[in-house]
Q: What sequence folds into this?
């Protein structure tokens, strides 16, 4: 019994060593990197419904004419259409997480997920680093917290795009941080410089 136990342990050690040797010989398909994210939360002075209404009234649905022009092999036309877009746009109808959890009998909760951005801005990130495809447009949550405070929450583009360590990307991200912040201050009933003109 004791001998069998020892044999099993030895086999396990050998297997672990073999795996380790194999792992150094064959590169892993998986690589991990830890980044620091700065998370911004902007409290609204308004009710959830009034905050949502103010946001929706100032945030147009994305005009996708640029895509038709790209599909028609007209990059110059697409660029002109992109330059025509307002600073920020809504990429999809908001996803309703408050409604989702009614399946558990939890009612009256408010949480919406938006995707907000500008594909011309996205192109200014992507031309320098295609990793930008993970972060544009910006995911934003509009949530009523457990104290009844309505908040916009997002990861600041300066930190998500900042991981690329490219000053050309950083400059665009600083402007995008500000656009999002001004938009949410505006929708939340605070003084704000929204609406901002599109970035040059
Ligand atoms: C969408 O963009 C195109 C190109 O800029 C413009 O001609 C068109 O009027 C826009 N459509 C809407 C609904 O704003």
A:
């Amino acid at each position: 019994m004791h001998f069998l136990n020892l044999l099993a342990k030895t086999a396990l050690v050998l297997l672990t060593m073999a795996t380790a040797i194999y792992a150094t010989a064959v590169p892993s398909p998986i690589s991990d990197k830890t980044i620091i994210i700065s998370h911004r939360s902007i409290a609204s002075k308004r009710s959830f419904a009034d905050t949502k209404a103010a946001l929706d009234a100032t945030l147009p649905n994305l005009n996708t004419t640029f895509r038709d022009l790209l599909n028609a092999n007209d990059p110059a036309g697409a660029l002109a259409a992109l330059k025509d877009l307002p600073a920020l746009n809504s990429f999809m109808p908001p996803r309703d997480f408050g409604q989702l959890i009614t399946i558990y009998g939890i009612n009256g909760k408010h949480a919406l997920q938006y995707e907000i951005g500008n594909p011309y801005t996205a192109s200014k990130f992507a031309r320098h680093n295609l990793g930008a495809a993970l972060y544009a447009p910006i995911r934003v949550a509009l949530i009523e917290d457990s104290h009844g405070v309505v908040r916009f929450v997002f990861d600041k583009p300066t930190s998500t795009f900042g991981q690329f360590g490219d000053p050309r990307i950083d400059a665009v991200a600083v402007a995008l941080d500000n656009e999002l912040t001004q938009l949410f201050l505006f929708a939340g009933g605070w003084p704000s410089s929204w609406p901002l003109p599109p970035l040059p």
Summary: The beta strands are 39-43, 89-90, 95-96, 111-117, 138-144, 150-155. The chain has eight helices and six strands. The chain has a mean pLDDT of 92. The CA atoms of residues 82 and 119 lie 7 Å apart.
